[in-house]
């Protein structure tokens, strides 16, 4: 184990990373609360401010993936598709197989300048999660209880409200509804069989209601749907703990763009389109399993410095404060200096 790898595995340094995220997150949430007075006066100004505040928090998590663990993301798509990244409102359909798939999605958002305005159709339970749920609330994230009778009005109102969003947004949908597990897959395929739908090997049966509703409500705003299939080389299964410990992963993302004009407007036909899309995604995963790579040209978008520099500034200001609760740890050695040396190392080397 190298010196840098050993230092990153130290619990006290990982504690500092968590401390910076939690304290800065609480400060950001307080500022977001203060911006609520702007909502009835200037809604677009409120949105622009909160987009940048959320970036201040999400960029710290992206920093962990890109700079702390050194995880690399390779895109498999054509240049024409890449040229549109960050320049249009889109819906993202992503497979849900890993703990860190949302981080990989945020990495692409960061590299194309839409991280602060990224959206998701989230579980209602996440609203109660400190920092993440609270930040999402101020970002007008749509929360649902997965009971359509209860969610109908809330979902329609929340999605329709986003039609005039001033920043280009990427709206993430996990159409499978939950993370893939063998047990869930078995149950899902029983449902597919009962409905006469083709079985999937690497995905759960997609839930079409969320997709068709989102596409319908954002009609005229969203210009395309990006189908994203994520996988990791050497059949590795990445974890959040692995990222915190500085473990490096190699992520591959196949992205295909579908203009909304090519997607049926009728709800039943749109649902059928989504089922066919997941059959294609399944075939793509089968190809990856056999070949160890997706087909097509590859692009490696460069990492940007803002997320690293932002976290470095937060670490310096908050760690130098040395709150009493952490005084026993901080008195051993100058953690801010040590932590910033590691961040500088990644800045210079990568």
TrEMBL record:
Keyword Transmembrane helix in record: yes
TM segment ranges: 12-41
Molecular function terms from GO: 1-acylglycerol-3-phosphate O-acyltransferase activity
SMART domains documented for this protein: PlsC
Domain Phospholipid/glycerol acyltransferase: 90-212
Cellular compartments per GO CC: endoplasmic reticulum
Pfam family, one: Acyltransf_C
Gene Ontology biological process terms from the UniProt entry: phospholipid biosynthetic process
Family recorded in the similarity comment: Belongs to the 1-acyl-sn-glycerol-3-phosphate acyltransferase family.
Name of this protein: 1-acylglycerol-3-phosphate O-acyltransferase 3
Upper taxonomic lineage: Eukaryota, Metazoa, Chordata, Craniata, Vertebrata
